[in-house]
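The passage that follows is intended for readers who have already worked through the single-chain material. We present the inputs for a multi-component assembly, then the predicted structure in tokenized form, and finally a short commentary. You are encouraged to pause after the input and sketch how you expect the pieces to fit together before reading on.
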Amino acid sequence: MDDETFLRLKAFFPEVNLGSDDETFFRSLWHPKSFKQYDLITEAGSTERYFYFVLEGVQAIYLLNEKGEKVVLGFSYSGSPSGVFDSFIAQAPAQTFLEALKPSKLLAISHADYLELFKRCPEFHQWGHEFFQNILFGRLSREVELLTLSAEQRYVAFMQRCPEELKTIPQKYLASYLNMKPETFSRLRSNVSY
Amino acid sequence: MARLILTSENQIQRLNGILGKVEKLQQLPLDRLTMSPHEKSWCVAEVLEHLNIAYRLYFDKINHALEQLDAIDSDSKEFKARAWQKMVIEMQRPKNGKRKWKIKTMKRFEPVLEVSSLDQEQVNVVFENFFSLHAHLKDAILQSRGMDVRGIKITSAIGPIVNFYLPEAFEFLLCHLERHLVQIDKVLG
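Having made your guess, compare it with the prediction:
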């Protein structure tokens, strides 16, 4: 990992100040992984092996409904964490897929190394607390949006906050995430400004 | 007749579930894996060996098809199974934990294991073969996601009366696996 990449990774853990030994140890635990467009990074039914930090690309997390259609739960993108967190933490089979929607470069830490990091560097507990708190708040906020906003309001709210690189993925993934038909998404994209 | 829509993601998810279940079977003691409920019934090791035999008959055909198919630059697409193939697939698929159709096993699919003298080493080989063959199946499903699967058909293991496009072949093999996992549940009581 080059210094610039390491700085990007470190910036993802703002609560953590490591001494030089711990920093070397921390750096040694992360390994680069590359995926082609449409590769399955994690498969439903298998156990998530890694916690990822995204360097490049966009990934979608989704499950299959009874008809076999993809129901998108979320995205990850440059600078964000990625992975199937529930499967990673419980080390139990995932119910969701993680797919690279664009060619992707990720940094990965294994479950054993993740636990070792928390053991050796207790500062990560504070990071973990903040991280999972934010995940929880994010999921609650999304639930409220899905249950209370109209399709147009959901579209506007999402487009205002979503990073530019997410706007370039196939529309059907964005439509599914917003719980609307691709045709509805396409109509809103043509007619609604945000 | 309802359509049968196949997706590689659904197939991968089910295959992962099957592999997880067989991994758990591997933890069972030898006597449970080699015990048959009655004389005409197979034991667990024989069922798995039967699945190995069945998959080996597709192994080269799948490889050959994957070599011939053209790559496509899009995400995986749904595949609608054809009517006759759908019927053959549905005959294999268990419903509500039961095997709906009784199908007599052809001689060449029968496992040749001397059950009374099966030892742990031999049973381990059956499991190893199962995992290695079905890792090939998973790899084949993954590879096919990036290919134009309508480019080539393969002949089924029962002969030219049934031919499959790859997604149909994968579905048939998965339903066959699921059917025999139901049988294993019954054997183990």
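Commentary: The interface with chain B takes residues 38, 40, 43-46, 64, 67-68, 70, 93, 97, 99, 101, 170 of chain A (CB under 8 Å). The helical segments of chain A are 3-11, 20-28, 85-90, 111-120, 123-148, 151-161, 171-177, 182-191. How closely did your sketch match?
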